[in-house]
Amino acid sequence: MAAVKLHAVRKVYSNGHVGVDSASFDIADGELLVLVGPSGCGKSTLLRLIAGLEEASGGTIHIGDRDVTHLEPRDRDIAMVFQSYALYPHMTVRENLGFGLKLRGHTEEDVASRVKDAADRLELVSMLDRLPRQLSGGQRQRVALGRALVRQPKVFLLDEPLSNLDAKLRSAMRTEIARLHRSLQTTMVYVTHDQVEAMTLGQRIVVLDRGIVQQIDTPMKIYERPINLFVAGFLGNPAMNFFRGTLSDGGVLKGEGAELVVPGEGLPTGRPIVIGIRPEDLHRVDSSSPPGNIRLGALIDLIETIGNEAYLHASVGGWRIITRSSPYDLPPLGSNVTFQVAPERLHYFDADSGERLNVG
Asked: Which of 7, 148, 174, 229 could pair covalently with 354 via S-S, beta carbons 3.0-4.6 A apart?
């Protein structure tokens, strides 16, 4: 096991495109860190820089006490799991698991011991003599994980390993990876564009956009206090509701033909701001509603029922909102409904820079 340290790491391609721009952060020994962001944000590039599959244009990368910035991948003591399983089709599971060790000159006894240990951990014992074509997608991905596991590396690097699996299998494999990390306590860096994977797997998350690190923190701290509009809109399903407008001296946000009365203390007036509200923080008003909450009237125009909950889509003037609701006792389509939100659940952002406004 080993810590990983990145300092001002850059990747600039020959055409001038900046894939990663001055990434600096530490990954603790034994930590599972998730790199998350939309397609093209630089997360896979950053992982490949750590692996040595891409040459850094600037900055340094340390694994443990060694500067590995210019070392070949084979000399970095890492193991990588890719989106594609990349199994040898003519080899059995046993042979796939042990092939890399044989190339590195390990004894037959050591190879057999490590293969058995990995097969036990990943429940592959009954499949050791099968060929990859005889396995399901989830079983093949477990073999790919096992092939990395037998290496006993200092750092595991996983590049969207579950993207090729269906939703049910993805959930099961997510659990497998979380259990594997708890068992091994090995440093893992996991790349995904799936925010559910990021939130459930990561001890900390690095959110990237256009090659720039936006925010690094625990999943819930990022969810509860996003640093800017990009992070606020990216993490959360359904996404955060945004109300864009100009705040008056009386604490009235005006925009899109609608108004929202908010606590105005400490907020900039006379210039555009954005107020964010998570869908789960908007509740329909009823007789037991506490006083002091912020209220807004909305017109229900779409209801999505997904079993255990429903999403209510509505319009507040020109603002569009979505809220979570119980699937029972839903309002009829086309009805006018009043929602409320506690003042402390509001998020404030500068409309021009997108940066969070630290109010209250």
From this structure: 229
